[in-house]
Amino acid sequence: MADLLNIGLSGLSASKTQLSITGHNISNVNTPGFSRQDASQATRTPQFSGAGYVGSGTTLVEVRRSYSEFLTAQLRSSTSLSSDVEAYKSQIDQLDSLLAGSTTGITPSLQKFFSALQTAAEDPANIPARQLVLAEAEGLARRFNTVSDRLTEQNNFTNKQMAAVTDQVNRLAGSIGSLNNAIAIAAANGQQPNDLLDARDEAVRQLSTYIGVTVTPQDDNTFNVSVGTGQPLVVGSTVSRLEVVPGQSDPNRHEIQFVSGSSRQGITSQITGGELGGLIRYREEVLDPTLNSLGRLALAVSDQVNSQQIQGLDLKGQVGTALFGDYNSSSLMGLRATPFSSNTSTADASLRITDTQNLTISDYRMEFDGTNYTARRLSDGANITVTQNAGPPAYLSFADSAGKDQGFTVAISGAPNAGDRFSLQPTRRGATDIKVVLDQADQLAFAAPVRAESNLQNVGTGVISQPGTTDSVDMAALKAALGSDITLTYNAGTPPSITGTGVTQVSPAVFTPGQANELAIEIDGRSFTFTVSGRPQDGDTFVIGFNTNGVSDNRNALNMVNLQTKQTIGADPSVPGSGKSFTDGYGELVERVGTLTAQARMDSEATGAILKQATDNRDSLSAVNLDEEAANLIKFEQYYNASAQIIQVARTMFDTLISTFR
């Protein structure tokens, strides 16, 4: 009877525990990361009797969780990848809408500016038309500024978000370290602390939403968690931390440092996965190149329009002045070159743009070894040759392996020490700093500097076109050279006679009546081309002079209009047609961002599906099924009642036995 009682009690105890475990599963059905638990039972050691071994009941061996390390690791990696893509996509979606928008992009403002130029060129003396050109130029500059400001806001958001995400990483790392310690203590008793293990797995999963991690299980049931290329964030109960600091090369571009004790290590470029990895990837692959590309376009517009503007004459007959501000002012040159904060000297640098057509959209890093300078183009890692020019003033020039100039020079102030580094950003601030400085409509230089006309006394039908040039003109020198008019006198079969100063040659020397003769004349070393057509007679003269009163002249205005389609961005003089126009340059940027956006959307769908599959796989094994638990409640309740009935039978037998001896 005692044996029967013990057997009943063992069943009663086992069923009670099973009911408790079932209740625990049901109450945690919505607990994140919870793994369904069950108990494994075994028979007690049987007792020997003359008839053989007789069972002595049941016992619980262990309470275990439904867990697969493989499925958990798969969920963790899928979570990290999905969070990376979603962080990247959320930012690039905004950028794509900004650049490609019909009201927010650069293209509409470019088109309005050149359309206003075309209208003004049709009537160059029309003041309202000239004022519209100034208004549209101001609108174009503001559009560049606004788009640049939006990109700067994205950079600032990235900095703030990196700090917020890093705080979460450090918080979760601390939780994992504490759980590691508690698990190690509990596991010393020989059994697995299931709820603590689930809590740690969930903390690691949450951590993977912020940063890609590598988990290494240890013999004492603890986890070592590393980030980057193996930096140990959590080792047992010892926890390191991540810290966001201003960048050494650019204080506006924050970096991630791994802090362990008193040592620090920059790991920004090594971080992948999670929201943090997505933000860093977006900044490096999209945001920085877009800022640089937009800046290069703004510099090219400013340079080309200004260069053409100073090739002409305004309504007052004065040489044209710049429409857009000087991008090589001392303050702007200083902002393009930044010494690293870790430099040991106080040497500073300034970067001058020398040729906007040769500029790339890359940043550069320059280092001094104590004697020579070396540089690297960051976009493709190409080594750049640095040439020291004695001057004065002394400067450094830069060329790639093919010998192509990079479009800028750098001047160093102070004495650098060996190991000093400098960050060079030729185009980063181009769109931020562009502005209109011309404020008088009559100062737009629409007239060409040189005029030509036929003498009214000519007896022939010879006609001369207006001279034009593709050379850069020193207007003061040209005006001085044309202090008096140049006269060409036609002589049949012989070279024309020339009167006037500053003219070195006319080619070809003889032109043929009855056809259009393409002629060139050199004035102050610059070549001006024109056409003489018709049939001039001997003694007919043509006058070439400085266009002092060219009020109705629109030749320089037309040259400005032609800048819209001129290939001026990224042009290689040795490769014809290698450059891009303003519109094509911006279109290439929009196309690149649009392509990356489409790719990000496809990646988002793919990683979302992978994450759902990994979640479903894990839940199919570990998640609580309420129908199954309800069935277990009924089963274990019946088990409990049956065990209680065994005890009742033992009691009845005992009572019967006692009654026999009364």
TrEMBL record:
Kindly state a single biological-process term from the GO annotations of this entry: bacterial-type flagellum assembly
GO cellular component assignments: bacterial-type flagellum hook; extracellular region
In this chain the Flagellar hook-associated protein 1 D2-like domain maps to 341-426
Give the UniProt subcellular location, in the record's own words: Bacterial flagellum; Secreted
Entry keyword Transmembrane = no
Named from the GO MF annotations, one term is: structural molecule activity
What family does the Swiss-Prot or TrEMBL record give for this protein?
Belongs to the flagella basal body rod proteins family.
* Protein name, as recorded: Flagellar hook-associated protein 1
What gene is this protein a product of? flgK
